Amino acid sequence: MLDVNGIDLHYGAARALRGVSLQAEPGKVTCVLGRNGVGKTSLLRALVGQHPVSRGSVSWDGADITALRPYERARRGIAYVPQGREIFPLLTVEENLQTGFAPLKRMERNIPDDVFSLFPVLQTMLRRRGGDLSGGQQQQLAIGRALVMRPRLLLLDEPTEGIQPSIIKDIGRAIAYLRNLGGIAIVLVEQYLDFARELGDHFAVMDRGAVVYACARADMDEGALRRAMAL
Predict the structure, then answer these.
(1) At what angle do helices 165-181 and 135-148 cross, to 10 degrees?
(2) Which of 7, 131, 133, 184 has its CA 20 to 30 A from that of 67?
(3) What's the CA gap between 217 and 87, in Å, rounded?
(4) pLDDT digits (tens, 9 = 90+) for 113-154
(5) What order do you get walking across the sheet with 210-216 strand by strand?
C-alpha cells in the first residue's frame, strides 16, 4: 500500500503542497482531481522522488521511501507516466519500450505480452520512431513503457489530455484491466471527471496544494465532489 502522510513540497519560497495525505491500495484506483495548477503534478513528482518533500512522509509496502531517489523507487516497482508523455522521439517504439528495462534484473528484461494485448498498435509500429506517432499513440507508448517495468504502483498524470475519444476508451479499458489484476495500486491524476468516475475506487480533490475533499466510491457525494472541483 502507498501511504502519503501530511507532505509539504516547496519550489523555493513557493509552497506547492500543503499537508497532503493519500492512500492507494493494490487492485484499486485512487483518482486525484482538480483544476490546472492546484498541485496534482507536484504530488506525483513527490511520489516518484523527482522533488524532495519538506515535511511529512511517503511509505510504500510498509517502508519509508521519503528519502529514496527516483531510480531506487523504480526498483521497488513504482512507475510514472508523466504529463506530456516524454517519450524519446528519435528512438523507435521498441527502443522506447526497452528503456523500461532499466530497473529490472537481466532475466526480466523482455516486453510483457500485456503491453501488446492492451495496445496492439504498438506491435505494428515497433520499427517506427516515437516522434512519428500521433499524440494518442505516444500516450499508449508511454503507458506501455511503464508496464514494461512490471509496476506494483502505477502513477498516471492526466493520460486523457489532448487524446482522441477512441484512444481514451482504450486507455480506460487498460486501466480497468490493470486494476482487476489485483496486484497493482494505481494513482490516476485527471481533470476529466466522467473518465475518473468510471474507474475510481477512491477520490481526492485538490485545491491550492491541499486535499479539500476525499471519499470512497461508495460514499461519494457527486454534488460535493463537483463543488470541490469548482473551487
Answers:
(1) 10
(2) 184
(3) 33
(4) 999 999 999 999 999 999 999 999 999 999 999 999 999 999
(5) 78-81, 153-157, 185-190, 29-33, 202-207, 210-216
